[in-house]
Write a structure and sequence with these properties.
Layout (H helix, E strand, L loop, with lengths): L5 E5 L4 H13 L5 E5 L11 H6 L2 E4 L4 E3 L1 H9 L5 H6 L3 H31 L1
Parallel strand pairs: 1-2
Antiparallel strand pairs: 1-3, 3-4
Amino acid sequence: MSAAAVTVWYDGACPLCRREIALVRRLDQAGRIAFEDVSAPDASCPLDRAALLARFHAREGDGPVLVGAAAFAAMWRAVPLLRPLGLLARRPRVLVLLDRAYAAFLRVRPGLQAYLRRRKVQS
């Protein structure tokens, strides 16, 4: 297998992140994405660990580290099923809208994480 086209840094301690990454792993049948769990003690972190845990980050090839919606779009472009959405996100207006949606999600993320953790404990 060739080197990954995209590197994704995610919070493996977050139940929401784990679910999304599990889905994308299943869709990434060609292995084009390298997933790095920044919550792991031995994680390879190109930036401050706290910054990587606070927002979603990715890098296409040797390009710059992307943050937020741009990082999601890079990940989507690596997966054939999601590629059209990733290409659409290259349009500046679409990316702005996705970034706003991501910012709104980040405000409710702690509550969703707590809910999923409680639900797991009750199971």
